[in-house]
UniProtKB/TrEMBL annotation:
Signal peptide: none
Pfam family, one: ParA
Top-level taxon of origin: Bacteria
Protein name (database record): MinD/ParA family protein
UniProt keywords, alphabetically: ATP-binding, Nucleotide-binding
InterPro entries per record: FlhG (IPR033875), MinD_FleN (IPR025501), P-loop_NTPase (IPR027417), ParA/MinD_ATPase (IPR050625), YlxH/NBP35 (IPR033756)
Length: 270
């Protein structure tokens, strides 16, 4: 990550809920922070925020205050474990779920305020394929699709990839298998997804590994801590460290792509 004009933006998604996206976002952030990166996590589940709950942190302000003009993004950010920063969203606020395209653009552009303060932005998306989810995915540089061993996970991930490929010309996706019993199970999940994407879509999927099913993750959630923080030697924690090392080598953006994206002004400067 030597290009000082670029911020790596990784969106963590997966189509359906309950597959551990937020845990992936948090622990990937901690893994990158441990490598010396300045990392910010954006809770992009605008109506049902949970990053702050998972980490046991509180904030007096959130993204709805930024959108209303009451404060800037820096005033919303709170300190998380391991030196990461968190941008919390609101919970149970209907208007945040149904933002207009202009309002989504305003939120994405608001991050320009902190463009000199971070190396990596991790965007934890909501479940589903709403316009809001798609806006955040299109504005990211990397899309990390989380899959689990459930038929609905594969079908929902395929639907998400199909939509982004067919309607928005996105061709590259990273795939992470979560809560697997063995590494072979992770590769098998990836193969299932590739089987349908190769047949019907013009996309390139890259398997970035798996996170094992680990009771330590459940215990850390109950303690409102990241597993990498609470149980650094757990199987899941070691897998997250490996994922962070891989993510750190992903190429940085070098030029704007011609649509709304995070930190576009730094790419223009470059």
């Amino acid at each position: 990550m030597s290009n000082s004009n670029s911020v790596q933006v990784i969106a963590v998604t997966g189509g359906k809920g309950g597959i551990g996206k937020s845990n992936v976002s948090i622990n990937l952030a901690l893994g990158l922070a441990a490598m010396g990166r300045r990392v910010v996590v954006l809770d992009a589940d605008l109506g049902l925020a949970n990053i702050d709950v998972l980490l046991g942190i509180t904030s007096n302000k959130n993204l709805s205050d930024v959108l209303s003009g009451e404060c800037g993004l820096r005033e919303v950010m709170v300190n998380g474990p391991g030196g990461i920063k968190v941008v919390p969203a609101s919970s149970g606020t209907q208007k945040m779920v149904s933002l207009s395209p202009l309002e989504h653009a305003g939120l994405i552009n608001a991050f320009s305020e902190i463009s000199g303060d971070l190396d990596v932005l991790i965007v934890d998306t909501a479940a589903g394929i709403s316009d809001g989810v798609i806006s955040f995915l299109r504005a990211a540089q990397e899309i990390l699709v989380v899959v689990v061993d459930e038929p609905t996970s594969i079908t929902d991930s395929y639907a998400l990839i199909k939509l982004l490929n067919r309607d928005y010309g996105i061709h590259r996706f990273r795939v992470l298998a979560n809560m697997v019993k063995t590494q072979q199970e992770g590769r098998h999940l990836y193969s299932k997804l590739v089987k349908v994407t190769d047949r019907f879509l013009d996309v390139a999927l890259q398997y970035v590994g798996s996170i094992p099913f680990d009771e330590a993750v459940k215990k850390s959630v109950q303690r409102q801590r990241a597993v990498l923080d609470a149980y650094p030697r757990a199987k899941a924690s070691l897998a997250y460290k490996s994922l962070a090392q891989k993510a750190d080598s992903w190429p940085l953006p070098s030029s704007p792509r011609g649509h709304l994206e995070f930190f576009v002004e730094r790419l223009l400067q470059a």
